[in-house]
Amino acid sequence: MPNPRSAALTAVFLVMTMISPLCVAEGRADTLDALRREASKARAELEKATQKMEDRKKDLAASQVKLRGTLADLAGAEAELNRIREPLARLANSSYQQSGAAGSMAIFGGGDPSEALRSTADVTLLAQSQQALVDRADELQDRRKRLASTAQDLQSRNAVEQTRLQQDVDGLKNKSAELTQQLNKMLEKLAAGSLRRLQFGCDKDLAADAKKFPNGLIPAKYLCVLPQKGFKLRADAALAFYKLNEAYKRRFGRQMCVRDAYRNLSEQHQIYAQRPGFAAVPGTSNHGKGQATDLCGGVQNSGSIQFNWMEANAGKYGWVHPAWAYSNPFEPWHWEFGTDE
């Protein structure tokens, strides 16, 4: 029959928009698996939204740089044309003030017709010679106005979009934090042991991503911590190790003793320098793939009770003592997960 306490706890999660209905009758393990999937989904959505916001920031920055350059060019052109307009204005003004003439309209007045015509011709010649520049100035001014309006609209739109994206990201962060808090409370109420906690915190989907990175260069976020403090493995290896460790604990009354697990490239070089010819060449060790451990606590002694138990039981959980470790070199402490070389 369903556990009433589990049913009550599940009901709490039904009100959270990011959590699908859970069937308590399937048992606690199924409930935790479902919750883990929801947590992974929230993480993926958060990463996607964050990347989308970062992409938009880059696009906006590029657009603003281009816009500033365009406006700077237009401002320079306008300044140059303003310098041209000033001498034109002075010449035109002086022609109107010539003695005996009444400016370009003198042909309609009572002044000397010859002087009036000459003044008018001077002004007309000046106007014709600079007309192209004047037209260009007007064109650039109109264009600047259009760009300024477009820029304002673009900046306004981008500001709104960026705010919306930030709100989405903040919302996802808050939802993720809320989900984490709820899950932690549920785990405590379910009295989940350390194995369940470790399993919940280790997403097996990370294993595929970890395999994409070179040996010894796997980012920490793609590795899972072991019960033994300070050691990590690839997600699939870690999940299998948790179960192996629990079985070992039931048999011997204590957790497995781990001396080494994942080794980054720097650590591989350090060990190779200490044991040339015995340690794997840096960049080729299975430790660098996050799928190997060096054990202690008796396992390191071939023929010991602990070693014999490992030989008889480790394979049930995907862990093996590779053939080469029996003789070349002889390393009874070295155990690997999986069969990939």
Automatic annotation (TrEMBL):
<dbReference type="GO" id="GO:0008233">
    <property type="term" value="F:peptidase activity"/>
</dbReference>
<protein>
    <submittedName>
        <fullName>Peptidase M15</fullName>
    </submittedName>
</protein>
<dbReference type="InterPro" id="IPR009045">
    <property type="entry name" value="Zn_M74/Hedgehog-like"/>
</dbReference>
<feature type="coiled-coil region">
    <location>
        <begin position="130"/>
        <end position="189"/>
    </location>
</feature>
<feature type="coiled-coil region">
    <location>
        <begin position="29"/>
        <end position="66"/>
    </location>
</feature>
<dbReference type="InterPro" id="IPR052179">
    <property type="entry name" value="DD-CPase-like"/>
</dbReference>
<feature type="signal peptide">
    <location>
        <begin position="1"/>
        <end position="24"/>
    </location>
</feature>
<dbReference type="GO" id="GO:0006508">
    <property type="term" value="P:proteolysis"/>
</dbReference>
<dbReference type="Pfam" id="PF02557">
    <property type="entry name" value="VanY"/>
</dbReference>
<keyword id="KW-0732">Signal</keyword>
<feature type="domain" description="D-alanyl-D-alanine carboxypeptidase-like core">
    <location>
        <begin position="232"/>
        <end position="337"/>
    </location>
</feature>
<dbReference type="InterPro" id="IPR003709">
    <property type="entry name" value="VanY-like_core_dom"/>
</dbReference>
<keyword id="KW-0175">Coiled coil</keyword>
